[in-house]
Amino acid sequence: MSDRLQSPEGIIATVNAIAAPSAAEPLVRSTIERRGVGPRDVLIEIRYAGICHSDIHAARGEWGPVPYPLTVGHEIVGVVAEAGAEVTRHAVGDRVGVGCMVNSCRECANCRAGMEQYCLKGNTQTYGSVDRDGTVTQGGYSTHVVVDQDFVLRVPEAIPYEKAAPLLCAGITTYSPLAHWNAGPGKKVAVVGMGGLGHLAVKIAAAMGAEVTVLSQTLGKKGDGLAFGATDYHATSDPATFEALKHTFDLIINTVSAPIDMAAYLGLLRLDGTLVSVGAPPQPLAVPVFSLFANRLSFAGSGIGSIAETQQMLDFCAEHGIAPEIELIDAGSVNEAWERVLTSDVRYRFVIDIDTLR
């Protein structure tokens, strides 16, 4: 870390980071301030940070007002560099991770139920939220972060260090609905899209024992999909796909962040089937209600998982040898990587080597 200075709250660290100056400008190297390590805090020296499409949406103001300059990144893995006096869950030297949230109210019904990702007052996001001390949270495109121990995950040794970061968002975003809707033996699951989210959904659903089909715009990634555990792969650009697969699936996980023909996809579900969207298109989706009536169908959304479920996901991935396919980049290549994400030119997730930012 660079300069350290005193504040009324204690020692604050000024650390290297990559920041978005505005919605229209490229990312730039910068510095941000991290709060001092409180009694229940963990200081993490970040080693790797994944690039999520959400980072781009947020930094470019596509999901609402942004407190610029903003450092994004909510797929974070590193090592504990310092632990507060009351920390019991983590120790200096531990391999740890941080995902999409760093706090919640701890008091609402959802938080008390262990579903802090659905905090009724809004969980504190890893970047762009107002933190407990009134400052704006800054994300993982930086060398260090300070996080309450309750929101820090243990990263199993069995998961390759550089590949672990995308599991903290893409992994839990797909694992949570698959677990909630009971993907497993005897269930037919379709995954819409074969990108950063989709390829992990395929791996996880297959490891759960489900029969997995990929629905992608073209057959360009068919070899990958089958290698990741899918038993079938179809092109959604071919109208015959929707006729051939009518009333086939128990569960569809839609990972794409673009509008889809809801009637066509709902028609692929069998009795009591569910279509779950985890992709977040900026435009509203039109849901034809009569399509739901036909087979007592459900259309649902799912966010990330709780901290407990995220740890469960990491342990599951370690047990089953699941890790994302990544392209490791240096800190100077992030703007180029963002442009490639927008054209789907990555198989399947970019990860920043944070050592190149020190």
Please give a structural write-up.
With 358 residues, the protein is an alpha/beta fold. Helix 4 (170-180) crosses helix 10. The chain folds into 2 domains: 4-169 and 325-357, Medium-chain alcohol dehydrogenases, catalytic domain (Quinone Oxidoreductase, Chain A, domain 1); 171-301, 3-Layer(aba) Sandwich (Rossmann fold), CATH 3.40.50.720. The longest helix has 14 residues, at 307-320. A hairpin with an 8-residue loop joins strand 2 (10-19) and strand 3 (28-34). It contains 11 helices and 18 strands. The protein is 23% helix and 27% strand.
Write the layout of secondary structure elements.
Layout: E1 4-7, E2 10-19, E3 28-34, E4 41-50, H1 53-59, E5 76-83, E6 95-98, E7 101-103, H2 109-112, E8 124-125, E9 144-148, E10 153-154, H3 161-164, H4 170-180, E11 188-192, H5 196-208, E12 211-216, H6 222-227, E13 232-235, H7 239-244, E14 249-254, H8 262-266, E15 269-277, H9 289-293, E16 298-301, H10 307-320, E17 326-329, H11 334-342, E18 349-353
Parallel strand pairs: 11-12, 11-14, 12-13, 14-15, 15-16, 17-18
Antiparallel strand pairs: 1-2, 2-3, 4-5, 4-9, 4-18, 5-6, 6-10, 7-8
Helix pairs in contact: 4-5, 4-10
Helix content estimate = 10-25%
Mean pLDDT: 95
Name the poorly predicted regions: 1-9
CATH domain class name of the largest domain: Alpha Beta
End-to-end Cα distance: 8 Å
Give the overall shape, derived from the CA principal axes. Answer: globular
Q: Could you say what the CATH topology of the largest domain is called?
A: Quinone Oxidoreductase, Chain A, domain 1
Supply the number of helical segments: 11
Radius of gyration: 20 Å
What's the count of strands?
18
Structural class: alpha/beta
Looking at this structure, what is the CATH superfamily of the largest domain? Medium-chain alcohol dehydrogenases, catalytic domain
Strand content: 25-35%
Largest sheet: 7 strands, mixed
| Count of individual domains | 2
Note the run of SSEs as H and E: EEEEHEEEHEEEHHEHEHEHEHEHEHEHE
What CATH architecture of the largest domain would you give?
Alpha-Beta Complex
